[in-house]
């Protein structure tokens, strides 16, 4: 019988970014000898199965939040708050059954607030301890921060995928306010960091557009790209964010589209330093930080987190922010030509200390036999 700890990993189904940033975590867990089981459904399950076909995936219902074509994302989330609360209650009930059935030793939850268990070690991953309200931020932001901390304190530790220094990615989303006592900065989580640096790219493009996020905004962004591409003498590829569709299609002279690229194939493309056009999702930004691509950032309209991150990075060389209603590839290409972000970080050491500490704790015989004692370590 395998005595290695069994760790359940479950990312939020809000776009694909939560799933992709769990990829390096799962890789490190497997390298340290853990057994891993995944709880997910839909496209989130598809992308994780692609990276880890050998792992068991438990169907686990997500939040299933969709944006509106006309209502800004921030307001849509306010209207959907009751659904999110119900989803948190539902997943808290479901995880207890899963833990009992599969004899789980620990849980790693990426932004799923209800995925903790009172008797086993529970980890929460988030870069957004300080949510930015689209309305009355001075009044509502502190209330949202307090609510997030209420849920975070249900977990034994909160892993923040960012640097703890002033030179960081998330800015005020996870810096600026006092941190929860269980918070730990673990460094950015990019799926590219566990891959060998590519030496011979399969194909080279001048521009790679990465489409991501929930519908219908994913489809709207894709159509905006098609309407403005191809640029003259610019070979372009649209990665339209549909896992399972890996067939490249020739849309027009100099313009190609593919539904999804595995991490290694996308890394190979980005390593040639094309201009990247993308949403300002945090997981995408962590990937770009590794590859060092110049980037045009188009936040999802009304998604305050993305709007803040895009404005923050706009101050740095190699990044340009444009709101969706002022989207211009021509202007961005001229402005970014020849630029690179200042500090590509592929060669930075991979931080695996947080995984090793987790494994040491779980593999301690006394801790396994007394979960309540383990939670006090």
CATH architecture tag of the largest domain: 3-Layer(aba) Sandwich
Strand order of the largest sheet: 3-2-1-4-5-6-7
CATH class designation of the largest domain: Alpha Beta
CATH 4th-level superfamily of the largest domain: Glycogen Phosphorylase B
Summed up, the domain count is 2
Rg (CA only): 20 Å
Helix vs. strand class = alpha/beta
State which percent range the strand residues make up.
15-25%
Q: Please state the average pLDDT score.
A: 87
* Approximate helicity band: 25-40%
Order of helices and strands: EHEHEHHEEHEEEHEEEHEHEHEHHHH
What is the tally of beta strands?
14
First and last CA, distance: 27 Å
What is the 3D form? globular
- Tally the helices: 13
Which spans have pLDDT < 50 for at least 5 consecutive residues? 371-377
Question: Major beta sheet, specifics?
Answer: 7 strands, parallel
Protein architecture, described:
The structure is a single chain. Helix 8 links the parallel strand 12 (275-278) and strand 13. Residues 371-377 have low confidence and may be disordered. The chain is globular and about 60 Å long. The protein has 377 residues and is of the alpha/beta class. The strands form 2 sheets. Strands 3-2-1-4-5-6-7 form a 7-stranded parallel beta sheet, covered by helices on one side. The protein has 13 helices and 14 strands. It folds into 2 domains: 6-189 and 349-374, Glycogen Phosphorylase B (Rossmann fold), CATH 3.40.50.2000; 194-336, Glycogen Phosphorylase B (Rossmann fold). Helices cover 37% and strands 16% of the residues. The protein has helices at residues 17-31, 42-51, 73-79, 81-102, 137-152, 217-228, 263-270, 282-291, 304-314, 329-336, 353-363, 365-369, 371-374; strands spanning 6-11, 35-40, 56-59, 106-110, 121-125, 157-160, 183-185, 207-210, 236-239, 249-252, 255-258, 275-278, 295-297, 319-321.
């Amino acid at each position: 019988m395998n005595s290695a700890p069994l760790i359940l990993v479950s990312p939020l189904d809000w776009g694909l970014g939560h799933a992709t940033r769990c990829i390096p975590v799962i890789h490190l867990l497997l390298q340290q000898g853990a057994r891993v089981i995944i709880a997910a459904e839909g496209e989130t399950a598809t992308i994780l199965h692609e990276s880890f076909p050998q792992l068991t995936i438990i169907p686990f219902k997500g939040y299933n939040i969709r944006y509106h074509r006309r209502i800004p994302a921030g307001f849509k989330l306010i209207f959907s708050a009751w659904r999110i609360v119900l989803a948190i209650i539902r997943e808290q009930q479901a995880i207890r059954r899963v833990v009992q059935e599969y004899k789980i030793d620990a849980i790693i939850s990426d932004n799923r607030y209800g995925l903790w268990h009172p008797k086993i070690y529970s980890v929460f991953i988030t870069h957004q301890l300080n949510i930015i309200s689209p309305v009355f931020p001075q009044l509502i932001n502190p209330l949202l921060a307090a609510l997030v901390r209420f849920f975070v304190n249900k977990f034994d530790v909160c892993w923040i995928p960012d640097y703890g220094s002033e030179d960081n990615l998330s800015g005020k989303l996870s810096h600026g306010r006092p941190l929860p006592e269980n918070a730990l900065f673990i460094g950015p989580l990019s799926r590219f960091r566990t891959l060998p640096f590519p030496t011979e790219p399969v194909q080279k493009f001048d521009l790679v557009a990465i489409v991501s996020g929930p519908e219908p905004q994913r489809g709207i962004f894709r159509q905006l790209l098609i309407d403005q591409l191809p640029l003259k003498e610019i070979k372009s590829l649209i990665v339209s964010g549909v896992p399972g569709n890996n067939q490249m299609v020739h849309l027009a002279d100099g313009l190609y589209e593919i539904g999804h690229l595995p991490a290694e194939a996308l890394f190979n493309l980005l390593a040639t330093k094309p201009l990247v056009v993308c949403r300002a999702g945090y997981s995408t930004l962590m990937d770009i930080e590794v590859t060092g691509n110049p980037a045009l950032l188009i936040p999802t309209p009304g998604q305050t987190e993305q709007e803040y991150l895009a404005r923050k990075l706009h101050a740095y060389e190699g990044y340009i922010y444009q709101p969706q209603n002022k989207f211009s590839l021509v202007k961005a290409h001229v402005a970014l030509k020849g630029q690179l972000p200042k500090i590509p970080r592929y060669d930075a050491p991979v931080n695996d200390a947080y995984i090793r500490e987790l494994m040491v704790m779980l593999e301690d015989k006394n801790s396994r036999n007394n979960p309540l004692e383990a939670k006090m370590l």
